[in-house]
Design brief:
The structure is a homodimer. Chain A is an alpha/beta fold. Chain A has helices spanning about 15-30, 40-50, 55-65, 125-145, 155-165, 180-190, 205-215, 230-240, 260-270, 330-335, 345-360, 360-390, 415-420, 460-470, and strands at about 70, 75-80, 110, 175-180, 200-205, 220-225, 230, 240-245, 275-280, 305-310, 320-325, 390-395, 400-410, 425, 430, 445-450. In chain A, the strands form four sheets. The first copy, chain A, has an eight-stranded mixed beta sheet with strand order 4-11-10-9-8-5-6-7. In chain A, strands 12-13-16-15 form a four-stranded antiparallel beta sheet, with helices on one face. Chain A has a two-stranded antiparallel ribbon with strand order 1-2.
Chain lengths: ~475, ~475
């Protein structure tokens, strides 16, 4: 190939055949080798370059596989007719615009009163890893396959037993749909409903659902809370077909929905066909001073409650394991609509969870964390009262992993956010959960205070920082 | 409480306070205790039942927390005004209808020629578990939090380096979006496009995308393949804005898109604003006899290719780790649209993967599996030719984890499916991937033959069973 120079030692680290391949490819793409031009025979090129025939063969085979050349039996190799690129910028434009560059924020030295975390310090990783090995051993062949769209049957069986005991949920494993988070499950559930369907949410409430449902083109109606929770008259007048509630521990206010309001809500659901309540039981496992509050689903006699639970709060958010319990009618629709959906939760994690629950480790861990969180909660509230005195009003409902607190201050929510960053304190206000309405009581702010991820030793310091933020 | 009898030893396994709680609760719900009726004082009830005051206190506190009773300071406890249930069926109807009951299919003794699996037998679980422990140790605090919506930055960094080397992908970590599967990622990507957008798919092609995109209300156009892959003229005339392709190894036909067609496709994308190509590079890591085929994205000079890759094929489907690479313009839209989206891939798995790649174990494993799969592929093809002789035509493109084979037979696809079940052989035909058209060449059937999950020792037996199915 007279037009091509070649130096074996030129390009370090590349095999000889790759250098030949690259050289010929470039000549074809730049038009130096023309369409239907015959390439030298392998032997001839090998002699010319002083390399083995094997190297030339490999180069030709690669060019053939990628469609740069074609072969004709007994005749040899020819250049393909290659379309030219429309743009011929030598320099590919791929500088990432500045606005898309990520700042990696160093959280060293920060303290967190976030409600979105869990405490990992007591997590029994040793046990978890032991069950993981068991899962690998016993379910290896299942790991090579795409799982049942609702998750492995035995894991659903284990979850159904667990929530029957702990939450009074009445269901068959068939009714359980496992997924990589409640958000993902709710998106599937709602994805099969018609655009424009009216959906009622608690206000203040879980803003991620609000955003998601609006993007899905639902007619989303934030419904105000009264003393007992979501206002039934307002639900009724909204014309909603679906209502999202957090009866065990209202998010973010922390209120527990009393039995009377629960019955009213259930009664609302049976008054018309196709009305459903979605019970988001996100942190009901944590209840202090009294026993857990039974789920709304356990009171439902008409299969109008869709129950969702998660292992993000009791265990780790990073696990991505949640589940929902579908009434038979919805389940049938779901299976028809999502026959092609792939289970998105890690199946090794699911089988591991199965053994973790089955052997009692899960219940023991939740029990331990109940005590642990209760202790931290008490300590934090004590410190807050000591520091803030009368300027503080805590909605002291002993449940979950956060509480709502009102502080007297003239500062705005924006100022609070800025000062929290200065003080290296992660804290969230009610502002982000006030759906479609600006929520601000004069001379006060409401904060969602989480206590899951603050160490006992740091509580006093966190309260001091909060004082700087608010004061 | 004269109306309530109570026997400490009656209900085994329940605490005394729970028995009292339950008794009062039932009396309230059935109307035996009336609204605003005063309950006996704790001491009085304790005396009457011969239990400790503590037990009665606990029962009252639980009833209070759930809203069955209310307290008035210095006066005592009163029954709340409880709404009655609309339906009062004693027996809750929750028999799962028969059509929803799951049959657990026993796959014992089955052999699989499915294209959907991977081989787990050589997976280095020991190494994986070692890196998992390292991930727990080094990233414990990250596991307690909700991850970055696109996945941890360091994991994206590692993936971007990996695919730069292995697939020629040019991108920054910022452009990578990790997710629990390609399906989930594509749903997000397309979820922000307008309903009715025209989307072109290869036909035959990946039916799960077809189903999903139709459900998302896109105008989906299956485009036929010619010798070189998807037909550009037909894409152009469809008016599509998005085209889904599998250039490295067309699914399911196995064809490799030659360079000329690649350039034509890229040229198509730049002719109008907002045209994009989605390159699904699902099993490109496996290429036999020649080197890997460079990705389409590596040829793209105009940022019109959205690249997707997965660890489901190279490692395990159950891991649920895939990623896509977004051009800056799409990335900006994505970040705005999905600011509230929660990363759905297990973060412990992601950090583990990070070390697995960084330490070279991933590349070593892929290389090993390349040899392993090549060997199984050759053996399977040899056995097929021996058994079926001239009645078989294999599209012998040495890549990926499956190939397409045409068998002469008068049987229908339905008959083939039925007989495969009888013979306990998992095998899929092209029928399910023929989008919107019935695909059937007279007196022949096309099967997608996967070789990932069949043991070397079972290949001969699987071919014998296939002979029974087809013959």
């Amino acid at each position: 190939m007279r037009f091509m120079t070649f130096d074996k030692n030129n390009e370090q680290g590349k095999y000889i055949y790759q250098q030949i391949y690259k050289g010929i490819k470039e000549r074809i793409l730049t038009g130096k080798l023309q369409s239907d031009e015959k390439l030298p025979s392998k032997r001839k090129l090998a002699d010319q370059f002083k390399v083995s025939v094997n190297s030339v063969t490999n180069a030709y085979e690669q060019l053939l596989a990628e469609g740069y050349i074609y072969s004709m039996e007994r005749k040899g190799y020819y250049v393909e007719n290659i379309t030219q690129f429309i743009t011929q910028d030598e320099q590919r434009i791929n500088n990432l615009p500045n606005d898309l560059k990520e700042e990696v924020i160093d959280k060293e030295g920060w303290l967190s009163l976030s409600h979105m975390t869990s405490d990992i310090s007591l997590f029994p990783f040793k046990q978890w890893l032991k069950y993981q090995e068991k899962a690998i051993k016993n379910h290896a062949s299942k790991l090579t396959e795409i799982e049942h769209p609702q998750g492995p049957y035995i894991v659903r069986q284990t979850i159904s037993r667990l929530i029957a005991l702990s939450r009074g949920i009445i269901c068959e494993p068939e009714q359980i749909v496992i997924g990589a988070g409640t958000q993902s499950l709710i998106r599937n559930l709602m994805g099969m409903q018609e655009d424009g369907t009216i959906v009622a949410l608690e206000n203040p409430g879980y803003s991620r659902f609000h955003t998601m449902l609006e993007k899905m083109d639902f007619d989303v109606r934030p419904i105000p809370l009264d003393e007992d929770g979501i206002n039934i008259t307002r639900i009724e007048s909204s014309g909603a077909r679906f209502v999202f509630v957090t009866p065990s521990h209202q998010f973010p206010t922390g209120k527990i929905m009393p039995i009377s309001r629960r019955i009213e809500l259930l009664n609302w659901s049976v008054k018309l066909e196709n009305r459903y309540i979605i019970e988001d039981d996100y942190d009901s496992e944590f209840k202090y001073e009294t026993d857990n509050i039974p789920s709304l689903q356990s009171l439902d006699r008409n299969q109008r409650v869709i129950y969702t639970g998660t292992f993000s709060k009791t265990m780790l958010p990073g696990l991505r394991i949640s589940y929902m319990v579908l009434p038979p009618k919805i389940l049938r629709d779901y299976q028809n609509y999502y026959a092609d959906l792939i289970q998105d939760s890690n199946s090794l994690g699911l089988y591991t969870l199965h053994y973790f629950i089955e052997n009692g480790d899960y219940s023991r861990y939740v029990k331990k964390m109940n005590h642990h969180y209760e202790m931290k909660r008490k300590l934090l509230i004590k410190h807050l009262h000591l520091k803030f005195g009368d300027t503080l009003d805590i909605k002291d409902i002993p449940a979950g992993l956060h509480f709502l607190a009102r502080f007297q201050t003239t500062r705005s929510y924006k100022q609070i956010d800025e000062r929290a960053t200065q003080e290296r304190l992660e804290i969230y206000s009610i502002k982000r959960f006030s759906l479609e309405t600006s929520y601000k009581v004069e001379n006060s702010i409401d904060l969602i205070i989480g206590f899951a991820n603050i160490d006992k030793e740091n509580i006093s310091e966190a309260v001091d920082r909060l004082y700087e933020v608010i004061g």
